[in-house]
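Listing S7. Sequence submitted for prediction.
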Amino acid sequence: MLHRLTLFLVLVAVFIAQAPVAGAAEAKRKTFTFATFNINWGNPNLKEIAQVIRQSQADLVALQETNAASERFLRAQLGRQYRYAKFLRPTDRYGAGGFGFLSKVPLKNFSYLKAKDGLFGTWLCEIEPLGHPVQVVNVHLQPFYPLQGDGLGKAMQMIGRVEAVHVKEIERIAEQFSKTMPVVVLGDFNSPSMLTTPRFMAKQGFVDTFAAVTDNADGHPTWQWRFTDRTLSFRLDYIFYRGDFKTVASRIVRTEASDHGLVLSKLESVVAAAKAEDPPQAAVRPGD
């Protein structure tokens, strides 16, 4: 009995001694949740748009197709949740070229890349969400327009023309990617994953966060457009990263308030995780 009691007390002591170490390691793990959402410049249902963003609990949301009305509404509805909000009014003649950032951390070093080949520009900024700076690139590439009654040949020609524009757009945007810090590129790419732009991002070393944790990722569309007799749907919205991250989780939140859904990805800092798992270093005394 004495032997068993002694063994039990030893095991309890070992457990208590190790518990704070494991807890400290878990505390050091750092995650940050990014989201992208094309909210539809026609503002069909801003109340539901705000609700989708609020319930996502994302740390940073990149918005496309914002305008003065949606900016006022989202600032009023989400100002407490997102202390740091910045908007860029549309500069294109179509009214769909606005951008926004809703963030729980400060935003800095903004720059705007004006559209040259496509319809819309690109908005860039920096954040420090996980103890080190990260470049964030909010994109909205040239849209393609579904054709009705023109046949498959015409549709393929249209897609080919748009993809040629996408090549020029993404190559120009890539010139702005930081070479010294992790980069997160997110937004409405208007391109299915098997076409030009997502494949370009992969060649540049970027990870498609949703595909990284989802089987048959392209079976989960982020965009849909209804016609009288059919509905088109594709995965056109992405969150890519390059650098010291790994994807913890990713999902799509669909809504009738926009033709696009919100894409949400939780990323973990690989650097922070590695540090958390490092064993404690023994103190070295003079003369050792």
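Caption to Listing S7: primary sequence and predicted structure tokens for the chain studied. The chain has one domain: 30-276. The first strand starts at residue 31 and ends at 38.
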